[in-house]
Amino acid sequence: MTYHRRNKRKINKKVVAIIVILLLLFFFGSSIKSLVHMASVPINTTKNILVTPFKSSIEYFKTKKSLIDENEELKNQNRRLSIENLTIESLKRENSSLKEIVDFNDETQDFFVAKVINQPPFSPYDTFVVNIGSSDISIGDRVDNFGVAIGEIEEVYSRSAIVRLYSSPNKNIFVKLAEQEFEAVGIGGGGFSITIPKDVQIETDEPVFLNENPIGVVDAIENDQTGAFKKVYFRYPFNVNDVNFVQIYKI
Question: What is the pLDDT of residue 105?
């Protein structure tokens, strides 16, 4: 009985509360609405003040990440384009070199065209490795680069060979300079030195010959004021590291 009385009281209180709320809304609805609106304005303003910076920060980080990702993608595209351009230019140069070799004429001697597959620093100092072997060439065959004598075959294998450049350190050859023959010594890196009498007139950029083939040009002259000789330095007329193809002449 006590339980039912308590439950009945609770129901009565709820009914009374609902009736009071309905009466207030009926008589003072517009005023209550205005009060609620007035109260909500500062609440919403405070909420915006507190939340907006966080929203802006979130948007900022989203935008920044998007820009970083986009920038990285542009960098990757640029790298790919650069590699493609380098590849195209390399193929163009190789094609041009092959055309020059095909058009290169020498009616007195047969020669083989070989591609340089290794050169310093990937091969021993002042040597080339070429992609032609024992079925075509032999040790001692002369090696040229478009008419310029640069070395000779030192070792031959089944499908490759080693070219020893004349400029190898301490390698001696006889060359012609100013219509005279002198002994030249390789000093490495495509360079040579010659010791000649002081009274022989030599100028820089003067050509040097090996037999009838050009081998280099005078690079520098070192005079000894007290001695009877002077030292002449000459080099191949190109960078040996830029050689891509050679012609090999049978001896």
Answer: 47
Residues 32 and 95 both lie in one domain: yes
Residues 208 and 93 in one domain: no
Q: Which residues does residue 162 pair with via DSSP β-bridges, in sequence order?
A: 129, 155
Q: 238 and 128 share a domain?
A: yes
Residues 115 and 228 in one domain: yes
Closest Cα partner for 210 from 239, 244, 186, 243?
Answer: 186
Task: Report the sign of the C-alpha dihedral through residues 33, 36, 42, 47, in that order.
Answer: negative
Domain of residue 93 covers: 1-103
Q: Strand 142-145 to strand 111-118: parallel, antiparallel, or no bridges (unpaired)?
A: unpaired
Residue 180: CB atoms within 10 Å? 11
215-232 as b/e: b if 16+ CB within 10 A: bbebbeeeeeeeeeebeb
The number of domains in the chain is 2
pLDDT band at 91 (very low <50, low <70, confident <90, very high): very low
Spatial separation of the C-alpha atoms in residues 110 and 249, rounded to whole Å: 6
Percent composition of the chain: helix, strand, coil (DSSP 3-state, to 5):
40, 30, 25
Three-class secondary structure assignment of 112-145 = EEEEEEECCCCCCCCEEEECCCCCCCCCCCEEEE
pLDDT digits (tens, 9 = 90+) for 126-163: 999 999 998 899 999 999 998 899 999 999 999 999 99
